[in-house]
Structures are given as structure tokens and as C-alpha cells.
Records
---
Amino acid sequence: MVELGPLLEKLLAGGFICAVSDEAAFRHLQEEATRERIDAYLRPLNRRLASNADGSVHFLAWRALDEGAREQLSRQLAETVGSLLPLLEWLQLVQEALGRDGLAAPGDVLKPADFSSRCEDNQGLRERLERLATDPFFGSQSDQLDAQLKQVFKRLREHGYLIQPHADRQYYVVTGKIDYLIDLVRFIRDEENLPVDDQAPAAQESLL
């Protein structure tokens, strides 16, 4: 298991492994034998390897929901639900600002400069970006467009929805965690009947 140590560390730290975030690790996880070895290692820890429906992103889930697991899962869910609306608004903003037909998808390249130029020419988009950037999830305290964009992209990178391949180049790549987010929202909507749609604007409902 030594050779899988770095991969296990990422997973146990709450990481999401996809072809964008870690191509080599993702390739390892395509092998059934590797997945079985990881699951065998995780079994005494009450964890298991999981993936979304499309298999585009891998992460850890609890094997059995004992009291400790339920408490941690409840905290994680509360944090995730608290970020859903600003993240959905961001997805909608990406579509409208960049003129895309579909949602941002793993592998898509996003440049803050593209958002800046379009928001400067569209007051409606500018106001929406300002509201989004100052949401507690993103936490911008600036009234300057460039600083707000910098904070939004920083937070998305910190939460694993984007990677920045080169620190000195201002472009980002969407990771497979965005697929996990979309699947989670659909699950909440379809299975749990939580009021996500009731709180989200109609434009965001159309995303899903």
C-alpha cells in the first residue's frame, strides 16, 4: 500500500480525485484491483471509496453510519448546504457571462479577465457578481471588480471546484467536484425534498 500512500492521504483529507485534479491518481482508481485494495485498507476505518454516477470523481464515504459518523456527516452536510446557493448562482453567472449553453464541466478553462470584460459592459452582470462576491461563502470586502473576481476564484480553488495549473498565469480549470455538487443538488431535490429549489431563483432551477 506504500505506493498508494499519497492517494490515500488525499482521500482521507476529504479530497475529490478526478482526471483534472490528479490525472495519475484518477487513472489508478480506474483499476478494479486498486479500488479493492483501497477499500480493504479503509474498512477498519469505517470508510469506503465512492464515486458519482458517471464515475468522473472519487471521494470517501462512510461504510456504516454509527453515531460518530452521523455527527461528522451532519456537519459536512450543513457546510455544503450553506454553500449551495452561492455556488448555483456562480454556475448561472458562468453561463450568462460567457454565453455558454450548458453548465461548467470538468476540464473547462475559465479566465477572470473574461468575466471582468463582460461585467464591465453589462451592469446587470456587474451587480450580480458584486452580490455573489460579498456572500459569506466568498467573503469579498472589496468594491473593486478585479478584487471581487480574485476572491471568488480563490475560494472556488480552495474548495476544490477549480485548479490553477500555473500560479503566475490567470486561468483556472474546472474539476470533477462540480459534477459531485450537481449530483448532490439533484439528490436533495429529488430524494430528500429539502427546500433548495424554493430558495433558489427560477434561473437557477433551470440549471437542474
---
Amino acid sequence: MTVLIVSGTGTEIGKTVVTAAVAAAAVAAGRSVAVLKPAQTGVGPHEPGDAAEVVRLAGSAVTAMELARYPEPLAPDTAARRAGLPTLAPAQIAEAARRLSEDHDLVLVEGAGGLLVRFDEAGNTLADAARLLDAPTLIVTQAGLGTLNSTTLTAEGLRARGLTPLGVVVGSWPQSADLAARCNLADLPKSSEVPLLGAVPEGSGTLPPERFRAAAPSWLAPSLAGTWSAETFLTTWSPPAFTAIGA
């Protein structure tokens, strides 16, 4: 696996922190890593974006690249149109990822929002870039209510386009998981038919970078260069058995 697409089931669910964790685990395993953020929205010209945050957390050994930046926190095509700036085509994203793959063992392409957010007025999305790259997609999702539907829809959207959903990572696993989150943990692989490949603890992005890098492999499965075990995690967080009232 040289290029890996990282897509969320929505926005603000921990996609950048998961990208940083995957990068940190890969670097710890001796791989050279680059992160590509095709479209950065909602950030000013001189403010650090998501790619810079990945480098901050995963370390300076990670190469970062951004292709376009738009000031308003909107879908890339809308943000570009409102700012009077050029949009991005899937071919541009694929070409940048290929260039990075020539000098790196792993290239992480972090999308904007969900899989089918539009990048241009023609309706092209991150899925179109993934098709050009023939790259698998890691799905980052939330823990709570609604995640079964959004994760399953994302996995089905990938398969419908002939793409491979590599697995699911929970982007922010709560410190005190409620019943819905614990049930979802067991149900996600069944609903989406995609393996569970990790769970990043809530607030991990606020850790000092050294602690983040040291802990990252413990949040991810071996296929992502980590040591995390879905079986052990599911056992730890299994929901209590249902007991009927009066039983």
C-alpha cells in the first residue's frame, strides 16, 4: 500500500488526528510518510492547516503538501467559487499523490469532510481521485448514534464505484462510552462489512506530540502498523447484557 485515502463520514470527527496517528505509526515502523491535503478550507493564508497539524503531531519526518486553500469553511467547490479561486480536479490530486509516492513509502491523502463532498462544479469528489490512484480508503467515523448509517453508506459508496474500503477507525473514542457507542463498536463491522482497524481516544490531538507519537501505534491495528486488537477492545468495551424489567 503506497497511497491511502483517508475519508470521514462527515466533518469534525477526528479525521486529521487519525491521519496523524497513521503517519506516526508508519514512521515508528520505519516507513517514510507524506500527507497530502488537496483542499484546505476555513483557514487563512498564513494559518496552519490540517497537513501542518499532522506534522506537528506525527513529527517533522512527515512531508506535508497542500494543493489549494480556501478561506471559508465550506465544501471545496463552494468555497472556491465564493473566493473566486480555481477548483481542484481529481487528476491534479492523483498526480500530486503519485509524485509524493516516488519518494515516500506511504502517502496519506486526507479528504475534506465526507467521501462525496464536491471538489469542483463538475461534481468530482475524493472518490474520483481514489479511482485514478486505485487506492484503498480508510473510513474515519464517530462513535455515537448515527454512525452505523453514515459508515455503511460510505462503504457502499466506495464499493459502488469499484473502490476498496480498507477499514474503519473511530476518530474520537469517548473516555466514558455510553451504551450506544459500545453497541456501535460491535455493530460497525457487521453493518458496513468493513473491518474495525482502530479507535483513537478522545482528546488525543491535545497530547504533547512526543506522547502522541509514542501512543499512536496502540490505537491502530497491525495493518496500519499498530498493535491495537479489535477483539481485545471489543471485549473491554462490550455492552452489559439486557435484563428485562421484573426479570
---
Amino acid sequence: MTTPMPAPPYAAPPGPWLRSPAALGRATVVLLGLVVATDLFACYADLLEMDVTGDLADGVTGAGVIHRADHADTLISASAIAHGVAMVATAVVFLCWLWRIRGNAEVFDASRHRMRRGWTIGAWFCPVVNLWFPRRIVADCWDASAPWGSRSGHGPVNAWWTLWLAGLAVSRFADGGWRQAGTADEVHGAAATMLFSDGLDIAAAVLAVVVVVRLTGLQERKVLSGELPAPFPAPAHR
């Protein structure tokens, strides 16, 4: 009688179904840095707008203040365009990174995921559920990518997502105030709200960098260690 060979402690070495997220992670971090740069530019434009509208509200007149107002308005428009372009580029690369992270995480531990892989992209575009589904997907990937047996907290993920939602809410309020502003005082208030919104966006982008770097690192260490779960034995046929 032949003694069966013992099963290996881990699955086979990483194959084509496991792909390194490092390159996409670095690209995402660079683009998030670009978002921060455009937000800083927007903060500068907001401060100029607040300064000149404050003078206009105080009754300052003349060609000088008119020129400053035109200059501030031009910078506000330019910063909005630059930020929009940076956000679109970052969103595309971030979703590519997250799709790879989700695929690897499913190989690590399929039981950790509460949602199908298609939601990795779709969750961001579905109204209402986009307020919590993306955070859930990232948190599940975090849990599946953590070292075996460790307790993975979601502090960075929760902080990033909280600031992201807060920034979106304040940004909508600021946009509405800007469109409806008809006096120098109202424009001044709208610019102050926009400044707060841009500050939240900077904080959210910095925390997003932390999430990307840490989650990419978790997966890289797990892939290189070869610590993959042993495959379930095939059911015996009767």
C-alpha cells in the first residue's frame, strides 16, 4: 500500500493570477500628489479671491482692485480646470490599482469579500451606495491582504473615507454658494467655503496616499513570502 504524500502547507507559488500592484501603486501616489498640488493652487486662488472681495465689500474702488478681482477670478477658473484634469487622471489609475488589489486579495482569502469583484468599479458610479460600498471594498481587501492570523484595523481607511465624504459635501455647498453669490460679501463667503473644501481635499488625498502605500505593501509582502492558503481538497466521488 502506497502512503500518500502530505499536502503542501501553502498553495502553489504565485502564478499569473497574482500580479504585483507596486507599479500601479506608485503611479497612483504620484497622481495623488498632483491632486494635492492643484488643491494648493486652488487654496492660493481662494485666498486672493477672499482678499479682493473683502476690499470690495469695504468700499475700496479703483482700477487696481478691479485688476486684482479679474486676476483672482482667472486663477479660480484655472485652478478648477487643473484640479478637474488631475482628478480624472487619478481616478482612472486609482481604479486600475484597486482592481488589481481586489484580484490579489481574492486569491489570498476569498472569504473576506462581502461583494462581487464587479463592484470594485461599479460601486463608485452607483448613486447612494457609492457613499459606503467603495470603503467596504477597500476594507475587505485590507483584511484579506493582512498577514495570516493578525488583527487588521481599518483606521487609515476610515479616516480617508470620512474626509473624502466630508470634502464632497462641503464642495457641493461651496459650488452652490459660488453660483448664487451676487455681492462681494457673498463671493467672499463662498471663497472661504471653497478654501475649507480644498483643505479637506488635501487631507483626503494625503490619507489616500497612506492607504495606497500600506495596502500595496501588505500585498507585496504577502506575494513575496509565498504565504498563500492551502487549496481545499477536492471532494471524493462516490
---
Amino acid sequence: MIVNLVSVSAASASSDEPQLGGVAGWAAGLMESLGAVGAGIAIALENLFPPLPSEVILPLAGFTASKGSLSIVAVLIWTTVGSVVGALALYGVGAVLGRDRTVALANRIPLVKASDIEKTEKWFAKHGTKAVFFGRMIPIFRSMISVPAGVERMPLPVFLGLTTLGSAIWNAIFVFAGYGLGARWQQVTDIVSMYSKGVLGIVALALVVFLAFRLTRGTGTRRSRTRSRRRD
């Protein structure tokens, strides 16, 4: 009888543990092997490879801390360090790429002109600090915003300060959410995935509008040139 009760309680305890696979299983393995440093490494890689979702890694780290396996302070510190390291790597890519190479690449992309780069430069010169800070809290852009910062050679202390602050806020929200929800930490992932899809939808719509505008403008320009030639 006692043996049966023990086996039943053990089975129910194991059923409470989330079955982890994919990115979550990989991140859990890093944290199990390296502790909070593993969470930092996972977030650094997430910055370099945006398909790795921070909204999975960070709540999982918070949940792991809630079980006493990790210190939540160490998790917050190391995930922020990982964010900054990943952002610095992309900043370096932008700095090495530079303006001339960026313009050359833009000229090779259909429907993109060098004037688009100039407009982006002017916009970044005016709003760059806000873009870097708030960009750290927007999926996909939180990684890519570091590249134009490097291209424009934003002063490194300013970039580091904004990136550290923005990353610390983003990381803390998800780590504490995972810590508070415990075994239900995956609810955070479900909510943020909707947010991410919304961002992607807005980006896709903006891209369609941009392409439609360019195609319409290009067609109009060709028609006006044809008419002028006929008059000549």
C-alpha cells in the first residue's frame, strides 16, 4: 500500500514538470550544465540568431530560478550580459560593413535605392537613441537595431548604455514572469508569440505598401518618359 502511494506521488510530481524539447530543452540543458552563465550564453546566441526566441529562454530561466536551481539575481545579470555581448557583435558587423558597403548592397536590391539609405541615415541621426533603447523590446528588431547603430558609428558608450538598460528591462519582465508563474511559465511564451506575430504582420504590411508604392512610382516614371519621347 505504502509502495503504491509513493509510486503514485512520484508519478504525479514528474507529471508536473514540463516536458521540454526544441529550443526550451536546449536552453534547459545549458542552464543545467552551466547555471546562470548558460542562460546568458543562450541569450547571446538569441541576439545573433533571432529565430531563437528570448520569450522562451527568459521565462524558463525564471522558472528554473523559482525551483532554487539558479539565483534569480545571477540570471538577471548574466542574461543582460548575454544581450549586450550579442548586440556588440552585431554592432561590430555594422561598423565593419560601413556606409559605402551598405549603399553598394542597397543598389543591388531590387526597388531599393541609395536615397533610401540616406533617408534612413537622417532618421537614425534624429531618433537613433530612442530606436536602440525601445528596439531592445521589440521582437526581431531587438537584434537587428544594433547593425544600423554600428553603420552610423553611434558612440560606443551611448550604445552600450542604451542596450544595457533596454535589455535589462526586457529580460527582467520575462524572468520575473517565469519566476512568478512557476510550472506555468509557458503561458508567457503563448502571449508574447501573439505579440511577435502582430509585429511581423505590421512589418509585412509596411513592406507590401513600400513595394506597391515603388512599383507604381516606377511605372508612372516610365510612362512619362515614353510620352516625352513621343512628343520629341
